Each structure stands twice: as C-alpha cells, then as structure tokens.
Amino acid sequence: MWRKLRIVILLLILATVVQQLWLDKVDLDWKRNFYVAVYPVNVDGSAKVSAYLRTLNTEDFEPVAEYFAEEAAPYKLGLRRPIELQLGALVDELPPAPPANGEGILSTIIWSLKFRIFAWTNSPEVSVKPDIRMYLLYHDPAAQAELSHSTALSKGRIGRVNLFGDSEYHQQNMVILAHELLHTLNATDKYDLSTTLPVYPDGYAEPGKMPLYPQDFAELMGGRIPQTETSAEIPKSLKHTLIGDITAREIGWLR
Ligand SMILES: [Zn+2]
Q1: pLDDT digits (tens, 9 = 90+) for 100-147
Q2: What 8-state DSSP symbol labels residue 213?
Q3: Exposed, middle or buried, 203 (CB in 10 Å: 0-12/13-18/19+)?
C-alpha cells in the first residue's frame, strides 16, 4: 500500500517536472508579464534582521519592477510592466544549499530537485499565483562580512538569494535580486568566476565606449562596473546598471 502510494507520488512529481520544463520553454515569448513572489528568510535568526524584515513591504521592491519596465521599453514588448513583484510572508525554513564546487553534476541535479520540492511546499500565498519564486536569505551584516554566492534556476524558476538584512544595503540587495531574477529567465553570467571581473564585450554595459575605461554602468549579468582592465566596482543601485543586448536576447526581449 505505502509502496504504491510512494510510486504514485513520485510519478506525480515527475509529471509536474516535465510539465514545468515544457511551460518554461514556451512562456518566454512575453505575451504576458511574469509575477514574482519574494519570500524573506531570516537566516541567522537575528533579532536585528527580524526587526528589519518587519519593515519590508511590497513598495520596497517597486524599484526592481520599474527598472525592468524601463529596460524593456526599447524592445517594445507591448507590456507596460513585464515583471511584477509581490512580497510574500516570511518563510521559516532555509532552502537547501547548493553543492560546493566540484561535487559533480549528480549532486547538482539532486539539489535542484530538492530545491524545487522545497519551493512547492514553502510558497505562502500571494495575490497572483507566482511564475517565479525568489527566497531572500537575509544575513546579519554584523555577523559576517561577506555574502556567499546566490543561485537561481531557470528550470522551476526559483532563486536562493543571499542579502544583508539592513536598510543600508537595500539598494545593493535589489541589484543582486534583479541579477538572480534574470537567471530564472535564462540569462547567463557575464563575468569571470575566478576574478569576478566582467567579461569583455558581453559583460560590459557600453562595450563601444571611447575611452573604454572607466565604464559608467554595470551590465546586470556582468555584475560590476569596469574601472580599468583589472578592476571593477560593485554597483550601488540598479541606477548604475543596464541590460545589454546579449542578455536581452537570452531572456527573449530581442529576437
Ligand atoms: Zn549570476
């Protein structure tokens, strides 16, 4: 009996995965906008972060929706706001951490399945059923100086985003969120993983600029604003970033 039930459940999960793979492929045609749910998580259980999270509201995420609206405008998608963000309730559990580098493809596949199951079971209701779910892992800046890598999956459209839980970091957090969000829509990284320097020309906001350095903006998936051939600055807010042609093509804005 239990064995049969387990098989049925596994088959249902498999059917959902297949269906989702299919949906992910067809819906990058921007015939309608994407609804994103952002779910805050207090990683260290810090009281300070908890107090900060209580102050968050949907308006705080409006700059991300506005940014995508502005960046999409030249591509004439016929959507005034291609991406809408909704703030969901706090999630108490931590999404599973991705495997460390070098653990192999199998552990990555298992992790991505675990993460998707996590997302199905940890999706507090928001007013419009979300197409994309982003778990915002807020860390206490007093407890750690650096954030570990964020990860987002286009298959399943889910993200695990490491941020600092302090209003001082909000603008920078929105850059990280927007970057990870585009990963869920098939955009790829355009920086060198070992040096974090944007890759020329794809990771440059203005690859044709004369002189080339310093650049004024970061390409969102390039991550940083190149200052010289060997140095780049972290953008302070989305105002210092833009979406380049290659990224626009990957997410289906440019055909
Ligand atoms: Zn990335």
Answers
A1: 877 888 999 899 999 999 999 999 999 999 999 999 999 999 998 899
A2: S
A3: buried
Cα–ligand 1 centroid distance for 21 (angstroms):
21
Helix (H, G, I), strand (E, B) or coil at 227: strand
Residues, the chain, total?
255
Residues with CB under 5 A from ligand 1 (ion): 189
Strands, E assignment, the chain: 34-42, 83-87, 132-139, 151-153, 158-164, 218-219, 225-228, 231-233, 241-242
**Contact (CB, 8 A) for 155 and 24:** yes
Helices (H), 30-140: 47-55, 62-72, 105-121
Q: Tell me how crowded residue 44 is: count the other CB atoms within 10 A of its CB.
A: 16
For the whole prediction, is pTM greater than 0.70?
Answer: yes
The answer to whether 205 touches 241, Cβ cutoff 8 Å, is yes
Q: How far is the CA of 184 from the centre of ligand 1 (A)?
A: 10
CA dihedral sign, ordered 47, 50, 54, 59: positive
Angstrom distance (rounded) from CA 135 to CA 140: 16
Ligand 1 geometric centre to CA of 72 (Å): 20
Give the pLDDT confidence of 147-203 residue by residue, as tens digits.
989 999 998 999 999 999 999 999 999 999 999 999 999 999 999 999 999 999 999
Distance 228 CA to ligand 1 centre (A): 22
Ligand 1 center–CA 223 separation, angstroms: 8
How many whole angstroms from 6 Cα to the centroid of ligand 1? 36
Cα of 66 from ligand 1 centre, angstroms: 21
